[in-house]
Design a protein that fits this description.
This protein is mainly β. The protein has a single domain, classed as Jelly Rolls. Helices cover about 5% and strands about 45% of the residues. It has a six-stranded antiparallel beta sheet with strand order 1-12-4-10-7-8. Strands 2, 3, 5, 6, 9 and 11 form a six-stranded antiparallel beta sheet that branches. The longest helix has 4 residues. The two termini are about 25 Å apart.
């Protein structure tokens, strides 16, 4: 397979309900140039939206420094025409994921390796979904452009 030979595909979130908030699996970005995360939203409940944040840290699961990320949202619900057309790029360090906007859509988030505080050995990336939402289904897969093609894990 060509794609997984060039990129690391890393499932980081599989949640039937995000109402309690959650952290995705951490990724060691010392082994990667950049990371693109595909968030697939299902049904989302309530008016309040969970807040998406991305952090760097010196160890697995540590959230030391908030990172600004680039994102683009799918134009329509998954399975409908234009669901693969993304809105213009925007940036955020804390993106509110309201049901009216994000339900059943794809959100593409990009984080460049240069954003990390490497002076403090913050080479781990962790995604946080806040507990603000009433309910919601969310899955996420990270696609990392690795520095090396040795096939080793970037989760540990």
């Amino acid at each position: 397979m060509r794609f997984p030979g060039k990129y690391k595909v890393v499932p980081i979130i599989n949640s039937a309900d995000i109402n309690a908030g959650l952290d995705g699996d951490s990724i060691n970005m010392a082994k990667g140039h950049r990371c693109t995360i595909l968030f697939m939203f299902g049904a989302l409940g309530g008016a309040a939206g969970a807040v998406l944040k991305v952090f760097s840290g010196a160890t697995d699961g540590t959230k030391s420094s908030a990172l600004t990320f680039t994102y683009a949202l799918g134009s329509a619900a998954t399975g409908s025409a234009s669901s693969d057309v993304l809105a213009a790029d925007a940036t955020s360090a804390a993106l509110t994921l309201t049901a009216a906007t994000y339900q059943n859509k794809v959100l593409v988030v990009e984080i460049d390796g240069s954003e990390f505080d490497t002076a403090n050995n913050e080479e781990w990336l962790t995604v946080e979904i806040g507990a603000e939402a009433d309910s919601g289904v969310l899955h996420a897969v990270a696609i990392v452009e690795p520095r090396y093609s040795d096939g080793t894990t970037i989760l540990a």
